[in-house]
Specification:
Elements: H1 2-6, H2 10-18, E1 28-30, E2 43-45, H3 47-66
Antiparallel strand pairs: 1-2
Length: 67
């Protein structure tokens, strides 16, 4: 659902988080609700900050490909 709101796939969203492009505490945080799997908590995203970094990330990526 978050990925859809940001206009990207869940795979891309996970990639951005797991590779440090989306920073914990700034762009996302672990859900405070009980988790069945503590090693893979559900992430809660700040849509505004995520949208800004995603737009910048994809703009720079496309700009370098075009050059």
């Amino acid at each position: 659902m978050t990925a859809e709101k940001l206009g990207i796939t869940e795979i891309k969203l996970s990639y951005l988080r797991e590779n440090g492009i989306l920073k914990p505490g700034i762009h996302w945080k672990s859900s405070p609700y009980g988790q069945k799997k503590p090693w893979k908590p559900k992430a809660l995203y700040n849509l505004n900050t995520c949208r800004n970094i995603i737009n910048k990330f994809y703009f720079e990526e496309n700009d370098s490909v075009a050059a």
